[in-house]
Design goal:
Layout: H1 27-49, H2 54-78, H3 84-105, H4 110-136
Helix pairs in contact: 1-2, 2-3, 3-4
Length: 137
């Protein structure tokens, strides 16, 4: 008979942690800028494909890029002062609003876009919550 292998008790298990790598100082404005440009460009693409003129689509894309970039920048500035639960909810709400807006631009009804936005927001909040608490241990 072979001996049965048992896992060590939970308090004796060791999970290696990756060291926290500090971000470059320019990441505080580069990341929101890139996210704003990507979402604004995609909004412009969708709006132009729905029949808007290039000027109108460009204006919508510019306004969308500024709003998303500013919101991402503000979230990045205040995230250090928030609890992990509030930070996860804020990330989820921001992504849900952006995805809901972009989906609504594609011609979907407001109700359908709201359901998609809520599902994306909940998924992002859950994933962020997991990441924040996994790094906390």
């Amino acid at each position: 008979m072979s001996p049965v292998m048992k896992a060590p008790p939970a308090r004796e298990r060791h999970r290696p942690h990756l060291p926290a790598v500090p971000l470059h100082a320019s990441a505080s404005w580069v990341v929101p800028l890139v996210l704003g440009v990507l979402s604004g460009g995609y909004a412009m693409f969708i709006d132009h494909n729905q029949g808007a003129t290039v000027l109108a689509a460009g204006l919508l894309g510019l306004v969308g890029a500024v709003v998303v970039g500013a919101a991402c920048y503000l979230v990045g500035r205040i995230q250090g002062r928030l609890l992990p639960e509030a930070k996860a909810g804020l990330y989820g709400a921001l992504l849900g609003c952006v995805i809901g807006f972009l989906y609504c631009l594609s011609g979907a009804t407001v109700a359908r876009a709201s359901v998609i936005a809520l599902a994306v927001a909940l998924a992002m909040a859950a994933a962020s919550f997991y990441v924040f608490h996994a790094r906390e241990e």
